[in-house]
């Protein structure tokens, strides 16, 4: 079976890429949108995930689904789901939402067409285009190292298994 691609949003003040790298693995919980939950349910072990910092609005890394969906331990209702993620690598350079929106090849990407969705599938061509853009010279003054954000010291005091709002 072919590997699918996804994009997950995280608030860098709550759970930045650097913390996933430091933790080595995390439970991705706290999702309370039905469509996002259904996307979590569709993930398979080994699927690749673009890690997106919301607020800063940029893709900063690639993670992998380490464990398929299971009932979210932070929810009272077992219909809410979580998955486990592990980091693969930081992008060479973050890819900003501004860059994504300006690229005609990415016009149909769910990040552009359904911008409020926190867990979304990514078409293989869009995934490859994001990786190509990460290798291009930075187009934005806001670019920051993939390990953090301008507003984040690169870590979080919260437990990685709790409180991620997407």
User: Any low-confidence stretches, pLDDT <50, length ≥5?
Assistant: 139-166
- CA-CA gap between termini: 28 Å
Helix content: 10-25%
Mean pLDDT: 86
Proportion of residues in extended strands? 25-35%
Shape by Cα distribution: globular
* SSE series: EHEHEEEHHEH
Give, in spatial order, the strands making up the sheet with the most strands: 2-5-4-3-1-6
Could you walk me through the main structural features you see in this protein, from its secondary elements to its overall organization?
This protein has 166 residues and is α+β, with helices and mostly antiparallel strands. The protein has a six-stranded mixed β-sheet with strand order 2-5-4-3-1-6. The longest helix is centred in the C-terminal third of the chain and has 12 residues, at 124-135. It contains five helices and six strands. The protein is globular.
Set out the fold topology:
Layout (H helix, E strand, L loop, with lengths): L4 E6 L6 H7 L2 E3 L5 H9 L5 E6 L4 E14 L9 E16 H6 L7 H4 L5 E4 L1 H12 L31
Parallel strand pairs: 1-3
Antiparallel strand pairs: 1-6, 2-5, 3-4, 4-5
Label this structure with key terms.
alpha+beta; 5 helices; 30% strand; globular; disordered C terminus
């Amino acid at each position: 079976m072919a590997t699918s691609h996804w994009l997950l949003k995280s608030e860098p003040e709550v759970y930045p890429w650097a913390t996933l790298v430091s933790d080595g693995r995390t439970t991705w919980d706290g999702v309370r949108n039905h469509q996002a939950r259904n996307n979590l349910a569709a993930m398979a072990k080994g699927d690749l995930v673009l890690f997106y910092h919301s607020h800063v609005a940029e893709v900063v890394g690639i993670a992998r689904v380490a464990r398929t969906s299971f009932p979210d331990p932070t929810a009272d209702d077992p219909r809410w789901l979580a998955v486990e993620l592990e980091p693969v690598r930081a992008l060479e350079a973050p890819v900003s939402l501004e860059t994504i929106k300006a690229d005609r090849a990415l016009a149909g990407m769910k990040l552009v067409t359904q911008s409020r969705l926190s867990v979304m599938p990514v078409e293989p061509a869009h995934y490859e285009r994001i990786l190509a853009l990460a290798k291009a010279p930075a187009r934005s003054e806001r670019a920051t190292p993939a390990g953090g954000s301008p507003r984040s010291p690169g870590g979080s005091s919260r437990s990685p298994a709790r409180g991620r709002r997407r």
